[in-house]
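Lab manual, section 2.4: Encoding a predicted structure.

Procedure: take the sequence of the chain (280 residues), apply the prediction step described in section 2.3, and record the output as structure tokens. A sample record is shown.
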Amino acid sequence: MFDMIKGPKFISCEAEVEDAEIVIFGAPFDGTTSFKPGARFGPMAIRGDSFGLETYSPYQDEDLEDKRIADVGDLDFPFGNPERVLQNINKFTSSISGKKTLMLGGEHLVSLGVIEALAEQYPDMCIVHFDAHTDLREEYLGEKLSHASVIKRAWDILGDKRIFQFGIRSGTKEEFEFAKRHTYLNKFNASMIKEVLPQLKGKKIYLTIDLDVLDPSIFAGTGTPEPGGVSFNEFLESLLCLKGLDFVGADIVELAPHYDQSGVSTAVACKVVREVLLML
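Recorded output:
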């Protein structure tokens, strides 16, 4: 049994877990954020603002009302203990084995808990990673568990050439050199995404989206904004190129809603959640 924080559900995601194809859960943790905290408030902000969204996607000609999706709320975490947070996420993901998951963050470290659980179920799994940052540091300020090192920890599990990174425009020189040897990295945008599709077809795919991949002029509500990002339309076009792949789960992380008082960032996050749910 898991302690869950209940609240509003994402629009139209009212199925019972046992009947659901997809399970949404929140991971409201930002304990290793390296710049501006606040991503812990992302999951509930997304759910609340989702009621300003239509359930129908004209981009995909599909409707959430035709899907069986359960939103079970947020996991209740011991703040200040990243190891326990990741263990809780891992155990919860394993407890709903066989269903696809969409986790709402939270900072990017929370992805590691799901990746660890799914890699045990799907040893050939690949990761598609949208982000402004490489997240390939061995450690950050002496900590190996950090949102700045989450993709390096994923590489520790999966190994070479199974991580595909898009939109990356920030990181140390060492991280970019590491990526040349060990991951597929498309700098600045996702212009080469169609070229890697043959490598992804037939594989189990985990999708991790750090919303700071978007330019801060349209997505200011994040803890580590990085100028030079993609537009919403560019991002969505790239994302929909992946439709039809064999996804086993996804996460959407790093909305820190109170840094954008206009509410635009949360509205953008809601729309990304809808499109990812329909892709899954």
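Check your result against the sample. The chain is about 30% helix and 20% strand.
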